[in-house]
Amino acid sequence: MQSLNTLKYNVTVKPSRYAAYLIFSLYGIVLALLLWIFGVSWLTLPIFIILLMLASHGARKAYQQTYVLRLSDSGRIEVLIDGELVAGVIADTSFYNGYFISLKVVKENSELFIARERNNKPIVVYRDAVSDDQYRLLARVINLGR
User: Fold this and answer.
1) Per residue in 15-45, pLDDT tens?
2) Residues 93 and 127 placed together within one structural domain of the fold
3) How many domains does the chain fold into?
4) Are residues 70 and 39 in the same domain?
5) Cα–Cα distance between 8 and 31 in angstroms, integer?
6) Are 109 and 136 contained in the same domain?
7) Residue pair 28/55 in contact by the 8 Å Cβ criterion
8) Domain match, 72 and 128 both
């Protein structure tokens, strides 16, 4: 049982173009709706420019996000994101599809349902940010935890 809890897999998440496209397209949809509703005038033009700058900044920030996952066969995980260590167990509400994996990390020391909800840390891993073997490994760990 001890070998199941050892953190023996390292998954390095590299920059993802999927993340950048997703963020930019979400801002683009909001911008298009605002253009459709309000049109362009001297009053709305600065707002549209600010939204476009926010879209490009958000896409660049999402593209540059990198982190390292360390995980075990039993679902224990440690993630180092921006200098902050998040450790816990992969929740059974984690899911994956062909484009991304959504990992919900629950801290191990929280027992109550309400405390568990506050201690959840969602981590999104896009398909193009990891190799195919690492993507399958993450999907397998999610399936083993269910």
Assistant:
1) 999 999 999 999 999 999 999 999 988 988 9
2) yes
3) 2
4) no
5) 45
6) yes
7) yes
8) yes
